Every structure is written in C-alpha cells, then in structure tokens.
C-alpha cells in the first residue's frame, strides 16, 4: 500500500476550529504528508503497473483540489494527474474504489459508468447533498441508490463506490460502507 497526492496548491485553507477561511496557502502534497506521517509520494509518480488497485478518499479535498466540483458542480474539471491515474487503472482493467464525493471523478472521466453517492432524495435529512445523484445522471452515468453501509460495484468498469460522509450517519455505519467498498475492490483485484 502506498499513498499519493498531487503536488499542487490547495484551492483554499479552512480554519476548522472556527469554520472560516484562513488567510494562508498550503500545498496538497505537504498537507497530505502531514496526515500520512510523511509516507507519501507525488501522484505524478504513480504507475498503475505497480499496483493491483487504486482507492480515492472523499471529502472537500476531492471536491476542491482533485477536481473543481465544489465550485463548478457537474461542469467541473478533474486534475490532470487524477484523470490520468483513473484512466491508467481503467485501461489496465484494475479496480478503482471511490468514496464520499469522489464517485463524481468517475462520472466525469468514464461516461456511462455506474456509481453511488447514497440516495437521490434527502431521506429523513440524512442525504443533504442528494442532488449530486441528479448531476451524475446528467453527466450520462447511472446513479445507484445505496444505504451508507453499502457499496455499489460497476462490474463492467471495475468501479466500486460508497457514499460515506455524503450521508449524515453514525461513524460506525460510514465505516461499514467504506469497509464493503475496500472488500469489493480487493475481490476485483
């Protein structure tokens, strides 16, 4: 297992204690290295031939830095190294795991694929970003409704997705969904 991140400037920096923007600049690779305790490499160096699968986490980092979904929605652009990584694994018929908001990466790169970001309706207030499912459909992909503790496998494209924090759920349910995604990726590897 190796961890990679793009060597780019973050779109913005947030002071999470105050919930407000911070007036500073940070680098995605350096911040990722802090979280990974330094055991990380530049995404530009990733070679699909050296790995059995790839998994992308989610969160605002994906929506702001790996692509511009947070600002541009379905009209977003995908970072060139993220795009080429996804293409390389797909071309090699190796599994791709995506959780939380990162299934939108597949929706942009692989028209016609199947993904989940949870539900397409805000059921009981648990899916406040349910409109993301509609945007995925507008991109020509099929959104599959799943509960937070489940994942969806697009067997034709070897793409496995789960909604994670796209659902307001207890952490153990999010953990279970991510666990099923990882298990399904490993089955396809």
Automatic annotation (TrEMBL):
Source organism, top-level taxon: Eukaryota
NCBIfam families per UniProt: PRK11780.1 (NF008747)
PANTHER family in UniProt: ES1 PROTEIN HOMOLOG, MITOCHONDRIAL, GLUTAMINE AMIDOTRANSFERASE LIKE CLASS 1 DOMAIN CONTAINING 3A-LIKE1-RELATED
Protein name: GAL3A protein
Gene, per the UniProt record: Gatd3a_2
């Amino acid at each position: 297992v190796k961890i990679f991140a793009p060597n780019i400037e973050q779109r913005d920096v947030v002071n999470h204690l105050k919930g407000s923007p911070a007036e500073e600049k940070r680098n995605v690779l350096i911040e990722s290295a802090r979280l990974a305790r330094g055991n990380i490499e530049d995404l530009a160096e990733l070679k699909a031939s050296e790995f059995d699968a790839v998994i992308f986490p989610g969160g605002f980092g994906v929506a702001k830095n790996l692509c511009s979904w947070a600002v541009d929605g379905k009209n977003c652009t995908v970072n060139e190294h993220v795009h080429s990584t996804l293409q390389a694994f797909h071309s090699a018929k190796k599994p791709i795991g995506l959780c939380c908001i990162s299934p939108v990466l597949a929706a942009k790169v692989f028209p016609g694929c199947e993904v989940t970001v949870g539900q397409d309706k805000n059921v009981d207030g648990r899916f406040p970003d349910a409109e993301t499912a509609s945007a995925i459909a507008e991109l020509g992909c099929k959104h599959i409704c799943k509960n937070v503790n489940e994942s969806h496998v697009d067997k034709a494209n070897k793409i496995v997705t789960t909604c994670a924090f796209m659902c307001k759920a207890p952490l153990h349910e999010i953990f279970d969904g991510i666990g099923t995604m990882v298990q399904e990726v490993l089955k396809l590897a």
